[in-house]
Amino acid sequence: MFEHTMPRPSTQVIWSEAMMAYRFSESHPMHPARLELTARLCTELGLFARENLALVAPPVATDAELALVHDPDYIAAVHAVSADPSASNLKRGLGTEDNPVYAGIHEASARLAGGSLIAADAIVAEKALHVVNFGGGMHHAARGKASGFCIYNDAALAIQRLLDGGVERVLYIDVDAHHGDGTQNIFWNEPRVMTISMHESGMSLFPGTGYANEVGGPDALGTAVNLAVPARTPDAAWLRAFHAVVPQLATAFAPEAIVSQHGCDGHVDDELSNLCLSVDAQRQNALDISDLADRLCGGRWIATGGGGYNITGVVPRTWSHLVAIASGTPVPLRTAVPEPWREYVAQRYGISAPALMGDGAELWWRSWEVGYDPADPVDRTIMATRKEVFPYYGLDPWFD
């Protein structure tokens, strides 16, 4: 549908302090301070002042918009607990330990969803080439149920809006430590959408799904792709896994737009996963996804946030890198974290924040083409995924 590309990169960032109303409790891991600290760091780094970057406040998605991917009865249930938090609806996942309910939860959740909907609108209307909604990425929400801190699935809504706007194929890439089960299942039988999730194995982490043999519904076989890496996977193996699977399938699928989920809870200092990643690797992965968007779909890219619960040491740096990459000029890893931001963190949280924008990690990884090691559990994961999915695209699972 797209006949030309825009001057690159015209970038929008979805941000408003109203997004901080998505707040389950003061002690809940999904605390909105992670968003405020990210926006504050972006400001201190000068990212929000870039001439090609526009800040856009998200609207509250309407019920009709939410119904693009959610059951109307579920939307009504969220409304009900939003008006009366004493009326939990456990059948719908509302009022659980993961998803406590509170007054106003519908509006707060629908605002995050609205952010990703207007991101899709901007791409379709060619008002922006890249859009970042670091407050989004609520990938566990299902059609009819809340799950894993997620009420409405904004990433799925963005994908559906792109399809409805005439985009013929959308690639969804999810690198959160947890399987992107909600988004996968919403598009399970939709051949116009490929969902790729690289996550810690369900053998050791919620939600316990996302294995290589989950490949899509009968009308969309090969469009669900899962890389379930083992616990304790480090940077080099994680990047190796990505590059052994994602570029090949992305190229074969030939998307017109990419929607990505950049949960940063795979960091070694995040307590809610067992992966051993660095900010450096997560930044490199964002660069890799940006490159895929440039190469395959004219740069059209929506990037969302997701998980990430080390709110002072990891999340703000990782998502500031994402904003910098999306707006065309990455922040070098050796860049000093601005002192005013570090002072704010020290005064507000009593924590000494990192001094640099990177962790000083070694990012070299072994290319898949140099050989497969059957004794390596990550290599076995890679091979399992390639064997399951590559044949659908005429790719050799051993080579390419």
Automatic annotation (TrEMBL):
GO terms for molecular function: histone deacetylase activity. InterPro entries: AcuC, HDACs, His_deacetylse_dom, His_deacetylse_dom_sf, Ureohydrolase_dom_sf. Pathway: Ketone degradation; acetoin degradation. Coiled coil: none annotated. Keywords: Acetoin catabolism. GO terms for biological process: acetoin catabolic process; epigenetic regulation of gene expression. CDD domains: HDAC_AcuC_like (cd09994). The keyword Transmembrane does not apply. The keyword Nucleotide-binding does not apply. PANTHER family: HISTONE DEACETYLASE HDAC1, HISTONE DEACETYLASE HDAC1-RELATED. Belongs to the histone deacetylase family. This is Acetoin utilization protein AcuC. It comes from Paeniglutamicibacter cryotolerans. The lineage of its organism: Bacteria, Bacillati, Actinomycetota, Actinomycetes, Micrococcales.
